[in-house]
Amino acid sequence: AKTSGKRTFRFFEPQMDDQLQARKGLEADLRKALPNNELDVFYQPVMHAVREEVCGFEALIRWRHPTRGMIPPDEFIPVAEDIGLIVNIGDWVLRQACEQATRWPTDIRIAVNLSPAQFRSQALVQAVVNALAATGLCANRLELEITESVLLEDSEHTLTILHQLRELGVRVALDDFGTGYSSLSYLRSFPFDKIKIDQSFIRDMSENSHHLPIVELVIALGRDLGVTTTAEGVETEDQFRKLQALGCTELQGYFFGRPAPASKIRLSDGKTRRR
Ligand code: C2E
Ligand code: CA
Ligand code: CA
Ligand code: CA
Hints:
Elements: H1 14-33, E1 39-48, E2 53-65, E3 69-71, H2 73-82, H3 86-101, E4 109-113, H4 116-120, H5 124-135, E5 142-146, H6 148-152, H7 155-168, E6 171-177, H8 183-189, E7 194-197, H9 199-203, H10 211-225, E8 228-231, H11 237-246, E9 250-252, E10 260-261
Parallel strand pairs: 2-4, 4-5, 5-6, 6-7, 7-8, 8-9
Antiparallel strand pairs: 1-2, 1-9, 1-10, 2-3
Bound molecules: ligand C2E and calcium ion (CA) (3 copies).
């Protein structure tokens, strides 16, 4: 707590003070992360359910903090959003991911996560155009993942951006599907190429679970709407076979591969096959 003037005010409990200190420290470190080369992009394979082959990768950011080790994105992305760093960091990830994808066979797609602040930014479409132009990646190999929170904001602006992206030939996926409030209505109002079924639904798909009928419904809905469905967080052979039988288009999860640095990804005879 600060003491100033003749009166002493305690705005914060001592433990709040510690939290604030830690937060300020994290913010200061995060501002240096990109210039200090502490950020990295990992790639997790996405499998085509019928071909049982890798058809793409999702780019997932990593931060190697100099003293604290790996800090998960769920911890620092929200901070980057708050302090206005996300647009810079997001542009960097986009560029890295596009660059990396040009080294893979042309039937392999790359998915990049967009935070709501990036999506709101006037510069998003131009940033995507620039990343494609600078790397020479074909637009139809790039997929952008957005979450429902983006759609909650200004739906007219959102719709304009989504149409502009699709006009470029870029694909757009609705991430974490099912975790929001009105996912189903969004499918009707916005043009998506892909629905990513949140891993919380995949985790518990046992026969008597209420999650199984939801997963079945979303896969059937995707088929009816002509939208690709991807199941996230597939960890077991049992889940894999069940989702394959239900007709889910693509599968992603630790069962097929964890996120890894690009240098660890092995491509056999020009194709990335299941390990
Ligand atoms: P997400 O987009 O839903 O990404 C999927 C997360 O689930 C990743 O966590 C991934 O490592 C993890 N995952 C994949 N398969 C499995 C599995 O079988 N089991 C379990 N338990 N987890 C699995 P990660 O890499 O920690 O990323 C967390 C979140 O951080 C992402 O969730 C995304 O929202 C955000 N994020 C990551 N990279 C970026 C980025 O470059 N930009 C933005 N804006 N957000 C990012
Ligand atoms: Ca994602
Ligand atoms: Ca997700
Ligand atoms: Ca998520």
